[in-house]
Write a structure and sequence with these properties.
Layout: H1 3-8, H2 14-36, H3 39-55, H4 64-85, E1 90-92, E2 95-97
Antiparallel strand pairs: 1-2
Helix pairs in contact: 2-3, 2-4, 3-4
């Protein structure tokens, strides 16, 4: 069983989970997109947010929208910290040097 299957297996009411995904997905994309200004990062963060929602579905106490936005915001901040910790990429000739 893959990690995604293992995480989603913890969701007791798959129909309710899928409704939440459809209900909050676009708003989450908009919020994360404003913070990242990068489509690839936005897609990754939104996907990771919903994977964590599946993992912690039974433990979410606050309204799902608030929980999802909090998790997504924290993932954006973590990604920004990781990006700042990496050395900058430079172009030498036609090759990137890391």
């Amino acid at each position: 069983m893959s990690s995604v299957e293992r995480r989603s297996a913890q969701v007791p009411d798959e129909a309710a989970f899928n409704r939440d995904v459809e209900k909050y997905r676009l708003g989450l994309y908009g919020s994360v997109g404003k913070l990242t200004r990068n489509l690839h990062d936005t897609e990754n963060i939104v996907q990771e947010t919903f994977l964590r929602y599946a993992q912690y579905y039974n433990e979410v106490q606050s309204p799902p929208q608030a929980w999802l936005h909090k998790v997504a915001r924290n993932l954006v901040f973590s990604a920004n910290r990781a990006r700042q910790a990496r050395p900058p990429e430079t172009l030498v000739g036609e090759q990137f040097v890391f």
